[in-house]
Design a protein that fits this description.
Pfam families: ADH_N_2 (PF16884), ADH_zinc_N (PF00107)
Protein name: 15-oxoprostaglandin 13-reductase
CATH architecture of the largest domain: Alpha-Beta Complex
Order of helices and strands: EEEEEEEEHHEHEHEHEHEHEHEHE
Keywords: Oxidoreductase
Radius of gyration: 21 Å
Family: Belongs to the NADP-dependent oxidoreductase L4BD family.
Shape: globular
Number of helices: 9
CATH topology of the largest domain: Quinone Oxidoreductase, Chain A, domain 1
Enzyme class: oxidoreductase
Structural class: alpha/beta
Helix content: 10-25%
């Protein structure tokens, strides 16, 4: 497991007491507009009171890590365009899709002060927050090798999306010489998907990235067979050179022109794992956006499957899949990389940086020390 890239450093600390402490949170100050690019000015960091009134079953959590994810862009709009995410409210605390924290006060037999916990789908960008103990998962820090961030980078929704997306929608058949293409290949999900495609039996894996540094990362560090810089190279032409036999599996994180080029190179009865549409997150088009008529005809004529993948529809397979991810990590078969921004007040900067392609691997924010 490679060391993370730390993009900034802020003096963090481990508070000795929560009594009388001033809390901090990030709020949504304004919306960028449905077609706008997120800006730092859309956010504000403010002080707020630390919760001190608890009912039975409730706990006080101190945030340690925040998961920063592209899908959060949808929540900046008044209408998210997806049924499973609600919009952020102006002046209210921003809520992410995952985090890790430490229990500071407990009014529940399920958790004790000092326990390290995580939760997916709902984690406020706030230093201290109150929630119910039964909504949190206690982590075994020793079992995780002391690196609790791994539940956000691999052993959580990101890793499950990569693995189950390929297994449920990718149509990978070992020993059939399949080629898999992954867009946003240096990102949180893409970097795992490419490695997993190899482990699942694909003969060739090609990554599509936006910088030469990212292309070098996926080929030299993650051992992809090839990489294409879509900003400086003709994706269609390069795929024909790298994959003369065509593409059988496409893990689509971006949509747009990049995906159109990949689809033109896909073979009969091939499969698209529709994971994300980063190219459309700042646009008004429906999600996922409709395809160009020519591209849609290719999909129909070649019987290419293109099904939207939502990992939460496969909760019955989470336990088995997490066991597989843990085994690969233990065997050294998966390499993880994450970009870390330090300080709660820098969470907006981390988000804007990620939306501009500034991250390699998972984008995280470290809020406080364990």
């Amino acid at each position: 497991m490679e060391a993370p890239y730390i993009s900034s450093s802020t003096a963090l600390g481990r508070p000795s007491s929560v009594s009388g402490l001033i809390n901090r949170r990030v709020v949504l100050k304004s919306r960028p507009g449905v077609d706008g690019v997120p800006q730092l000015s859309n956010f504000a960091t403010e002080q707020c009171a630390t919760p001190n009134d608890f009912n039975d079953g409730e706990v006080l959590v101190r945030s340690v890590f925040l998961s920063i994810d592209p899908a959060l862009r949808c929540r900046m709009n008044e209408a998210t365009g997806v049924h499973y995410l609600t919009p952020w409210l102006i002046g209210r605390c921003v809520e992410g899709v995952g985090g890790v924290g430490v229990i500071e006060k407990s009014h529940s037999p399920l958790l004790a002060k000092g326990d390290v916990v995580c939760r997916a789908m709902s984690w406020p960008w706030q230093l201290y927050f109150k929630t119910t103990a039964d909504s949190l998962q206690k982590l075994d820090v020793e079992e995780l090798g002391g690196d609790v961030s791994v539940v956000l980078t691999c052993l959580g929704l990101t890793g499950l999306t990569a693995l189950l997306g390929l297994r449920e929608k990718g149509g990978i058949k070992p020993s059939t010489n399949q080629t898999c293409v992954v867009s946003a290949a240096a990102g949180a999900c893409g970097s795992l998907a490419g490695q997993i495609a190899k482990l699942e039996g694909c003969k060739k894996v090609v990554g599509i990235c936006g910088t030469d540094a990212k292309c070098d990362f996926v080929t030299k560090t993650l051992k992809f067979d090839a990489a294409i810089n879509y900003k400086t190279e003709d994706v269609d032409k390069k795929l024909k050179e790298i994959c003369p036999e065509g593409v059988q599996v496409y893990f689509d994180n971006v949509g747009g022109a990049v995906s159109d080029a990949v689809i033109r190179n896909m073979t009969q009865d091939s499969h698209i794992v529709l994971c994300g549409q980063i190219a459309a997150y700042n646009k008004t088009a429906q999600y996922p956006p409709p395809l160009d008529g020519h591209i849609q005809k290719i999909i129909e004529d070649r019987h290419i499957t293109r099904d939207r993948f939502l990992v939460l529809q496969y909760e019955d397979k989470f336990e088995e899949s997490l066991a597989q991810l843990k085994a690969w990590l233990k065997e050294g078969k998966l390499i993880l990389r994450h970009t870390v921004e330090s300080g709660l007040e820098n969470a907006p900067r981390a988000f804007v940086n990620m939306m501009n392609g500034g991250n390699i691997g998972k984008q995280l924010v470290i809020v406080s020390d364990i």
